[in-house]
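Request: Not sure, any thoughts?
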Amino acid sequence: MLQHFSQQALVKSTIIGCLLFSSSLIALQSTVANPQVLTTPQAKTITQQLLQDVLTKEKLDNTAKVVQVARIAKGDIWMYNPVPYWKIAIADQLQNLVYFTTDNGNFRVLMQRNGQNIHSLGKPAEEIPPTAMITVAIRLAKEWGYPGQPALTNISSAKTTWASGCENISAPAACDPILRQGWKITIPYQRQRWVFQGETADDLQLIARSNPVMERGLPIPVGNEIKRIASYHLQILPSVVLITKIEPQTFTDSCLGLGNLAESCAQQRIRGYRVMVAGKSPAQQIYRISNDKVNIRTEAIAGLPNRTDELPTEIARTVFNAAKSDLKKPIANLSISQVAPRFYCFRSPTAAPNEPCIPTQRLDGWNVTVTNFQKSLNYTVNLTGKILSKV
């Protein structure tokens, strides 16, 4: 079941809002069993913010007022511990709404409308993720380029199950995946989506970002190829690559206008696209690609030259900085001409000294050739970017 969360929007008070809130206090004092709670600045602030938000969101009329503020009692079957809650009721001539809100007001949920339960009774602990997970998801979304402050009213969550534990395991090692249960939390922005998954707030991870309206501007195979290559460059999942800009283009040669001194580019008109993608802020890449995805180039960006390789960008930066000194040329005048992946070779602890190791599909690094168009050097680089050798 999906759940949505209301936003604690700090709206400037207007004269009408102040009058409405002032008038609500009269009803509060006559309906709350313990009216002293209203004397605390915290309770007054949370109640006023909720009233202002509800007046806008629920389109209540000008008779709307707060009719109850109280601590959650043991008989309130929506309650789940250990989080303390306020119970706040707001009503106008047509509607009566009951909200539960945390002590600090950062999380609230509409539990009842006109006496009808919005949520299944007795199941909030199963239906609503811990507030810490929502807080962490919002922080991570901002780290991954989410613009502004997400509206809690639009955030949704759902229980989910997935298998993990074998992502970095390859033959000949055996692996049994672990079945995990947790939450999937989706934070929208206009028509974009940031999707997180985890068992707890501590292991919450971004598993997908999407910009479906933008992506419809690309043929599906072209979009998939862009995400595939960007995932290598940015070292993230293809599903997390966010396409942020698409420009249809007609290129004049087979190198898509980005040929180097060692290339012979066929002069021909090629239809395609110029596509900008985002990784984890502020990482970006810009690609040129043909309609048939046969031709693809990475534009010069962030101090690196045009590229045709699929080496992670930060690894490429390390190699270019070394080659700048070794080949005595500025980075703009260098090019990666070849990249060959190196794979881990498994050796059994009981193997004889002369027994060959067993090749696996587990990546262990790269052999990278860099040229200044007069001379070339080959670098052996591990997964962390450390240069192990050069020849």
